[in-house]
Write a structure and sequence with these properties.
Elements (H helix, E strand, L loop, with lengths): L13 H11 L4 E5 L2 E4 H17 L20 E5 L4 H12 L3 E4 L6 H10 L4 E5 L3 H7 L8 E5 L12 E2 H7 L14 E5 L9 E5 H7 L10 H6 L6 E4 L6 H12 L3 E4 L8 H11 L3 E4 L1 H13 L14 E5 L5 H10 L4 E8 L3 E8 L15 E4 L16 E4 L6 E2 L3 H7 L2 E2 L2 E2 L2
Parallel strand pairs: 1-11, 3-4, 3-5, 5-6, 6-7, 10-11, 10-12, 12-13, 13-14
Antiparallel strand pairs: 1-2, 8-9, 9-18, 14-15, 16-17, 19-20
Helix pairs in contact: 1-2, 2-3, 2-6, 4-5, 10-11, 11-12
């Protein structure tokens, strides 16, 4: 394949890169949620404390990646059963620092769905908002392997689950020192699919590869110092979608890899347009992530007929990115009428392949539904056994090569079907 992207694995891990970036700006804002403004130094300390809390409870990596098959994990797994907030991203990063693989949990699941997910993931630990504690309590008797529960209080006022520890208490009792484990690029980043084409499956990536292919890290950096040198994007980003979906936390880590600041909306339980636009205005944010028309319509309605204290001053906003669902052309036109200097970007990707293609609308020109194939992206035949020529009009499968996920946790057959090898080249 001409100009195919590198399939060479990234040899540097996300934990090491994040700490190195933090060391260059320890007092800068890293993560903002409501009235809590955490500096890079504070996020480093808090995620180290979480890592040590997990290690103290016996969690970690038990079998090195080595020659493990792509559907096999050698690490313990921790579920993230939370609304958006500082805790969500702290758990993802802190788990990585303990060599524990975090995974996302859809907080809309009923008990039977939650039971399936936690069993499929072989979860040893979970971090849960109190609001969801009653559903978790229903399934705990069936999950003997889940023995570590950290609970985050919220507006529900629900009591601490039996055997659980309050999240902040666990951090306070743990060491702030760098965990005594070796960080690396092989440790897992795991993302559960939504189950739209079957039961949810845990997609496993080497975190080093995910750092580049999913989180948008530098494709040219080969040392920690080079990653740090490129952490200069100046992003001040509000990622409005739930972090339980890839779009939300992918762009969160992209913001951090660029040395920027992540802002979390004050009302994460639902889409609150007044909350979103007020935060963009008051913090002078330059980047907003949404999910297609479902987010766009309410946000546009608030701009057209403000119910808050609008009209809003949104001149700071330069990029509006829609990921996870299509953003219709007519809604792009409306956004550009209100925000004429904004660049609107459609992003398309998948849990299995990472980011794939994008489409940009700006300056009054708006369209939707077409993408140019970039290097590494091809169309495969319907039978997934051949790469279609650019001139072929056959409807096929969008596929990507290069650095890809390892496979689906515990499912060798589906891994083989989703990642076919054609003429010696692996695709997703």
């Amino acid at each position: 394949m001409p100009n195919a992207p590198s399939a060479e694995p990234i040899t540097i891990g996300l934990a090491e890169v994040h700490e190195a970036i933090a060391a260059t700006r320890p007092d800068d804002a890293c993560l903002v949620f409501r009235d809590r403004r955490f500096t890079w130094g504070e996020v480093t300390e808090r995620t180290r404390r979480l890592a040590n809390a997990l290690l103290d409870r016996g969690l970690g990596c038990h079998t090195e990646r080595g020659d493990l098959d792509g559907h096999v994990s050698g690490q313990d797994h921790i579920g993230v059963y939370l609304h958006n907030g500082n805790e969500y991203l702290e758990v993802m990063l802190g788990a990585l620092k303990a060599r524990v693989a975090s995974f996302n949990i859809n907080y809309r699941y009923v008990a039977e769905e939650l039971r399936y997910l936690l069993d499929d993931a072989h979860a040893r630990a979970i971090v849960v908002h109190s609001q969801f504690a009653p559903v978790l309590a229903e399934v705990l008797p069936d999950l003997a392997h889940l023995d570590v529960i950290l609970q985050v209080p919220d507006h529900s006022g629900n009591d601490l689950l039996p055997g659980a520890v309050w999240y902040e208490d666990a951090l306070a009792a743990a060491s702030p020192d760098r965990p005594n484990v070796e960080w690396g690029a092989d440790d897992l980043y795991m993302l559960y699919t939504g189950g739209t084409t079957g039961m949810p499956k845990g997609v496993m990536w080497r975190n080093g590869d995910a750092m580049v292919e999913c989180f948008g890290g530098s494709r040219t950096a080969t040392t920690v110092e080079e990653f740090v040198a490129e952490a200069n994007t100046g992003l001040q980003a509000l990622l409005a979608p739930p972090f339980m979906h890839g779009a939300g936390h992918w762009m969160s880590f992209r913001t951090w890899l660029g040395g920027g600041t992540i802002f979390v909306q004050s009302v994460p339980e639902q889409l609150d347009p007044v909350d979103i636009w007020t935060l963009v205005e008051s913090e002078r944010l330059n980047f907003l992530l949404i999910v297609g028309d479902a987010f766009a319509r309410p946000l546009l309605d608030e701009l057209e007929h403000p119910t808050g204290r609008g009209p809003y001053d949104l001149e700071s906003l330069t990029v509006l990115l829609s990921g996870g669902a299509a953003l219709s052309a007519n809604l792009k036109v409306e956004f550009l009428q209100h925000l004429p200097t904004v660049m609107i970007v459609d992003g398309l990707g998948s849990s299995e392949a990472g980011g794939q293609v994008s489409h940009v609308s700006a300056g009054g020109n708006a369209s939707t539904g077409t993408f140019e194939l970039t290097s590494g992206n091809v169309i495969l035949s319907p039978e997934l056994d051949a790469v279609l020529a650019p001139t072929d009009t056959t409807t096929g499968w969008l596929a990507k090569t290069g650095r890809l996920a390892l496979g689906y946790l515990g499912d060798a057959d589906k891994t083989a079907r989703t990642y076919p090898t054609i003429d010696g080249q692996r695709y997703a």
